[in-house]
Amino acid sequence: MPNQSTSSNEIDIEFRDVTKRFEDVVAVDNMSLTVKRGAFFSFLGPSGCGKTTSLRLIAGFDQPTQGDIFIGGNSVVGIPSHKRPVNMVFQQYALFPHMDVSENIGYGLRQRNPQPPRQEIIRRVDETLEMVRLSGYGKRRVWELSGGQQQRVALARALINHPTCLLLDEPLAALDRKLRREMQIELQTLQREVGITFILVTHDQEEALSMSDRICIMREGQIVQSGSPRQLYDEPVNRYVADFVGKTNFFNGDVVDAGDKGIAVKSESGQVFVGMQPKAAPGLVNGSKACVAVRPEMIAISATDEANNSNNITIDGQVTNRIFLGEHTEYLVSTEGCGDVMVLSPKSVESMSRSFEPGDKVRISWGSNAALVIGDT
Amino acid sequence: MRIYAIVVFLFLYVPIGIIVLFSFNAGRHASELRGLSVQWYGKALSNPFVGDAFVTSLIVALSVAVLSSLMGTAAALALQRLKGKIRILFDGMIYVSVMIPGIVIGIATLVALVTVFDLLNPLLASIWPEGTKPPKLHMGYASVIAAHTLFTMSLVIILVRARIAGMDRALIEASMDLYATPWRTFYQVTLPQIYPAILAGFLLSFTFSFDDFIISFFVAGANTTLPIYIFSSIRRGITPEVNAIGTMVLAASLLLLMTAQFLLRERSSR
Ligand SMILES: Nc1ncnc2c1ncn2[C@@H]1O[C@H](COP(=O)(O)OP(=O)(O)OP(=O)(O)O)[C@@H](O)[C@H]1O
Ligand SMILES: [Mg+2]
What we know:
The complex is a heterodimer. Chain A is of the alpha+beta class. Chain A is 24% helix and 35% strand. Chain A is built from nine helices and 20 strands. Chain A has a six-stranded mixed sheet, sandwiched between helices. In chain A, strands 13-12-11-14-20 form a five-stranded antiparallel sheet, with no helix packed on it. Chain A has a five-stranded antiparallel sheet with strand order 15-19-16-17-18. Chain B has helices spanning 2-23, 39-46, 48-81, 84-99, 102-127, 141-165, 169-177, 182-211, 214-219, 226-234, 240-268. The structure holds adenosine-5'-triphosphate (ATP) and magnesium ion.
């Protein structure tokens, strides 16, 4: 049957060659993806890359221009949102201002046909209030609540319906930093408890990295890379992903030796870097433009006269800035020909060896297995 | 500048104040004040002609208010979905219809209706069975109500449109997302959000119709509404009784307008 999803009931949401066009804007461009049942999945990308549109396509507020979308193995193209077994938590919460907290939360149950008995609705609303730690708030007006409480009402209003999949559009964007951190943990715990699929939209890479099992990085309506946070961090397929996920130092150059053991890249200043190629990335050949990415925590910093350690790439430079970050100290080292390099030095190392002041001459070094050679896009 | 403003307000409100004051006149002439009393209110209320005119006005105003708030709301909701040039066209036509002077609407409606009646009446007479009396279309309740509604519907559309525009669209999507059908979404979410504007539109339509003289004068036919009654009795000289009727109409209108204002204010403060 053409209308059946390929895989078993393991897959909850599937996009097959989905395109969404608004007049001349292509918001989602020929996208294919699958989300496993019970996963915590994130769309991550800069503003305007089509994250919200992807979510709205799943919720049924928009219909794809082309392609097919499956929920639980069934094609949902053309099915209106009130007939889809998914629920959404809106960015500005969209709580009904003319109803109190309980009425808001019970809304979904009251729309069911046949409607559950009143007692049953009251019981489940109370249960859900307790789950989001808002017991006793049922009779409050929604605009009397704080941002975090409104957020939890919005969550409760969606979760009470036991959707197969919960959609969250930047649900924490309106909260302050501390509350956001708390809610991130709460959301994760909640997701494990209820065991339903969460699809989160965010442009905050830290949020995506800390919460999700799988992240899909988007650019201009297309998927650039999807994988676990670890994969994205350790093996970004290109500069865009490496730049988006965590802090990275980039060195541009041309491939001079594309061997199996490692790739050598020569920068304009003549410095030769050796690094690995991520498994998922397309092969690089001699002469092609490439980019060497080194995470700041992989770089060691030492005095210029210190005996060399096992690291085989060394550059001399001068400390221009030092930021104390608690667990780490961040140095900015300006080098000859290789620009400014960011180095993250853990506290343990700092206390053992000497630390450096702005103006000090230093030597930075890393092993070739710490460097990734990726396409320059 | 301040003196100028004071003079303007004096010009506006002193005549109204005088009407109110003279309605409490104990004497029988409108031009000289001889002590205060409410006797003219009693006279006015017990005058059968005033009573009839009041009932006529009430029937017309209520029908106009009901019709225009229903049709205006429906039109506003439909217009919300239009896009591009058609929408601009309709928006423009609605504003124009509010700005057209009452006398133009009155004459235009009169001419249009008379023309249509003259065309239809012979036609009706010809197709009506022999021996029975054919119905004859003429000016009456229906024509005043229609003419007023034409005008007040635009008011309702403008008010409701403003309210819909200020409403969070995500609320409707949230409702759909929570399994509510479009119809249930309408009366559970959209309606509670826009009803203050509908109610305000209802009250404004009522007041407009109740107070209107110009349009009614042209198309009311044999029906006498309260403003028409006042106009015709003024021709016989201004009596304290007319002042008393005027004051009552004024008080009722102000009350309704203030209620409407309050309804519109309340929603924007939220
Ligand atoms: N209803 C619409 N009509 C026209 N263009 C739209 C519409 N919705 C979205 N777009 C366009 O589609 C593109 C993707 O929009 P989308 O809202 O999905 O971005 P996003 O990734 O959610 O961005 P943000 O992080 O700013 O919320 C944008 O260029 C946007 O202008
Ligand atoms: Mg968005």
